[in-house]
């Protein structure tokens, strides 16, 4: 008699999160069903409820993103801070089906709770932190300009599918962005 197949809880949970990020990024919260997510992950839909509790809780887990390396130190200047965020924009994950948690929020921004979370993470989090790194007047404005640049780049790559940016040499993009951010330092 064969022993029942053991499930790898961590691998199943990870597969569900990956599938959810892709589905939510492409279709938003309202256009995504738990059966589709489960099918993409190759598991039964009941596992979503076992591991996450609800579709809403899965969505919340999918929105959780890691803080990019290099953002913690307060001595990091605006150019280095922007470069750390640029790593997220240029990552394969940001361009591969647009599954980065920020894109999930953008696709589901019609929901008030998602807009509030998007505002909190972008404005109260990253942009406020970046503004603290600029000296002089208009620090908040300069931070928002950098944020608009990086967010726009992410949308161009993942949503619009622009022809040049996704194929551009990352070091060349990095140098151009660094020059733009450096121009905003003064």
Automatic annotation (TrEMBL):
It comes from the Bacteria. Residues 10-70 form the HTH tetR-type domain. Gene3D superfamilies: Tetracycline Repressor, domain 2. Residues 33-52 bind DNA. Keywords: DNA-binding. PANTHER family: HTH-TYPE TRANSCRIPTIONAL REGULATOR RUTR (PTHR30055), TRANSCRIPTIONAL REGULATORY PROTEIN (PTHR30055:SF235). This is TetR/AcrR family transcriptional regulator. It comes from Glycomyces mayteni.
